[in-house]
């Protein structure tokens, strides 16, 4: 991910770090439904969030049937779309960091809100990282087309609120362009929801409480890419990644980016001013809770924002 302006606000409670310890926070892998349990996909209304987080399988679109989604649309026309990237994150960070984190935050947000969550779009605009093996990038025009078609597919079925949880700074400009194009296409095609269709991009890593927590834990060692905050969340989600962490030399500072060769020359190990060795799994649990708490309020506001209001 890369630094960008905050898009959501929230509040932080009293948080005290404990090195190496895991804290008890909601996880997107928690609370499976009991065998034979009928999952409730008919919320009272969008914005009437459940008192307790729902089972994970209740909000995963890929586990639902089309009749279930049709019933869901009778009372809620919102959907959450995780958007990430598959790119290098320094010598000790997972290539899937941006997709893993966006999906985890989106799923936790879905559990807390009752809003359906689509499968993650794991490939993003990462052209500047192509100097590092393992990076898979979509060109801006390709990502724009993918997001445009995702929005139009959902809008055709009657979804009116598309909430994209983004994990990669390189996706921001293209995503906003895709939304603008989708609005025009929906109107041109005469889709019934065209006048009510709204999309919002929520960058979990720039939520105000997340940024405050990152400053509290890491100060200026947070940096701008392969940051300890995002790496911490991956360590919480996938404990096997802990073994890869090790002290690293001072990272090159952030600077202008002019392409993959230039990026590799300026940032030889892929980091931009960050020290991911500061990351701990328990930090990741706190970042997940912090991000979901901030975005659930932003989502509530988004669902309450009636067209023309």
Can you give a write-up of this model?
The structure is a single chain. With 309 residues, the protein is of the alpha/beta class. It has a single domain (56-304), classed as Creatininase (Rossmann fold), CATH 3.40.50.10310. Helices cover 38% and strands 6% of the residues. The protein has nine helices and four strands.
Short summary:
The protein has helices spanning 56-59, 66-75, 97-113, 140-157, 172-188, 208-218, 228-237, 260-266, 281-304; strands spanning 78-83, 116-117, 161-166, 198-203. The chain has one domain (56-304): Creatininase (Rossmann fold, 3-Layer(aba) Sandwich). It has 9 helices and 4 strands.
The CATH class, by name, is: Alpha Beta
The CATH superfamily title:
Creatininase
Record field, number of beta strands: 4
Helix content: 25-40%
The radius of gyration is: 19 Å
Q: Please tally the helical runs, counting DSSP H or I stretches of 4 or more residues.
A: 9
**Spans where pLDDT lies below 50 across 5 or more residues:** 3-38
Net shape: globular
State the separation between the terminal residues, measured CA to CA. 34 Å
**How much beta, percentage-wise?**
5-15%
- The helix/strand order is HHEHEHEHEHHHH
Per CATH, the architecture is 3-Layer(aba) Sandwich
Classify the secondary structure makeup into a structural class.
Answer: alpha/beta
What name does the CATH topology carry? Rossmann fold
Question: How many domain modules?
Answer: 1
Order of strands in the sheet with most strands: 2-1-3-4
Main sheet? 4 strands, parallel
The average pLDDT value, as a whole number, equals: 88
